[in-house]
Amino acid sequence: MNLFSDIRASVMEALETMTSMGELPEGLPTDDVTVEPPRDSAHGDMATNAALVFAKRARSRPRDIAEILAGHLVGDPRIESAEVAGPGFLNIRLADGIWSGLVDAVSNSGNYGRSDMGAGKRINVEYVSANPTGPLHVGHGRGAVFGDALASLLEFVGYDVTREYYINDGGAQVDVLARSAFERYREACGLAPEIADGMYPGSYLMFVGEALVELYGETLLDQPEETWLGDVRDFATDRMMDMIREDLGTLGVGMDVFFSEKSLYGSGRIDSALSSLSERGLIYEGVLDPPKGKMPDDWEPRRQTLFRSTGHGDDMDRPVRKSDGSWTYFASDIAYHFDKISRGYDTLINVFGADHGGYVKRMKAVVSALSDSNVPLDIKLIQLVRLYRNGAPFKMSKRKGNFVTLRDVVDRVGPDVTRLVMLMRRNDAALDFDLDRVLEQSRDNPVFYIQYAHARVRSVLRRAGELGIPTDQPSRIEDAAELAVARKIAEWPRLVETAARSHEPHRVAFYLRELASEFHALWNRGNEFPGLRFVQEGDIATSAGKIALPKAVGIVISSGLGILGVTPAEHMH
RNA sequence: GGCCCCGUAGCUCAGCUGGAUAGAGCGACCGCCUCCUAAGCGGUAGGUCACAGGUUCGAAUCCUGUCGGGGUCGCCA
After folding, report:
1. What φ, ψ does residue A170 adopt, rounded to 5°?
2. Which nucleotides of B are covered by protein (CB under 7 A)?
3. I want to staple A481 with a disulfide (CB 3.0 to 4.6 A). Which of A108, A185, A243, A522 is the partner?
4. What is this model's ipTM?
């Protein structure tokens, strides 16, 4: 049920007829032909740019083509009129019954807006992937919410989605974690911890130290580091991942796969990924040019094993081995993405923090090389979250102990507010998050605004239930405000597909606010014109014709909020 | 200096991958509850879409350059 694609199909059919009748030349590309809502609804219900797209290739005037097209379209019973306007737009007005038909279809279906656009293709969405060395911070939370909503959105349009987290448990930072946890272990044994510079000072490691005492007693105290480092590291990273899973859980974010970087080492998987690149002639021994412009003080030329990423769009080649011969982090990333490709995904999406912007080109180069350009990789960069308290920037410092974790924020404002506020901004724009203002129950808080609309719907439906008004009867759309709501409902499938195609879940959030706005407007017209109220006391027949519209609004809001992971409220208090 | 992102109303931001007279919220001003929830609604005011070129029927949107803000730049992950 997608009114715009239905009418577009009708337009395409008319264009084919024109071609076969010699009114248009053969073989014109139709990809750019759109059928969309006009900016001004006074222009009609839909507008197509077909004549403008074809004018040049057909060597005729756009308005002339539009005129002929209009003649073919009026044969469609769903189309009441088609008028040429402006430079050659064709404004289409739909027949009266179309809108009530749409509303009835929506209010009686459970899956309005879903589509088979994805055709069951498999997409891997990797997000969060924070180091397992501490609690998630607010920036991780934004990536988590974005990735989760994007995954839901893609599922909604028919993709087979895997939500994945890459655990960076293979580098030096987890050794530092182990040493930091060991100091907390000593502390739990009654000794003074010595937390050196560069260690993780957070008190969240104290429970790890205590758990180590339960496991080992005091037996580790006199042992040299090499005897305990591996065990303590594994134990501590497991505990950190437990904590991160809990943090994500408070936001309602869950993963299908947790992929361990460490699992790549010693398994030969890095070697096989690199030999795959080697077979393509993309691995060589060489010396990189120094960085252009600003020269680092300690730069000196070194011979390294390099990946020829410039062959796939990168600015310079990238080292896969450190000078001591061990793998760079990039090498394990290559192996990880080789693994993803070999698992058969049609598309990969990585959600990174903006500070990883420098890795975009090389990762795309790797995936392009390893998949012979068959698997597209889209990397979504998530910009900073700046925390505010009452309009003033909130400075955080781990040392001063006023560090605000994701958990702190969710505990304070709740998962629904956290999620929607983060989704009301494009991923590539910085986000100001004011811990006090997001809780104000005012009009500028989209969470309350949208949930209020849904609560009003539920209130009406409850009232209808009490009065015995059936909610499955044909609707009657008469007033302009009712029509405006129906039009907005009609846009939903199209909006969902656009948002999914561009990997931009924020569009769903903005759409829901617009739909809520139209609904609130209609609701308030019921103050001025009681005949517009959905429930007409004492007149079941009239009420039955009005109840489908709010019901349809409720269905769209609730499925939209479902994509965003926000609870649709039954009541407002 | 190289690369990436951003620049739209006083403020915070949308703008449906190039469409018609650029939109919303906040702030300001004026209105609307004996009425399904006023946490809502209607109206007024506010713009050289950073700047300059280019591409074409048509540009906030695409290309080039300039200015301003942020991020990032070989043996960290």
Report:
1. -115, 0
2. 1-6, 12-17, 19-27, 32, 35-42, 56-58, 70-77
3. A522
4. 0.94
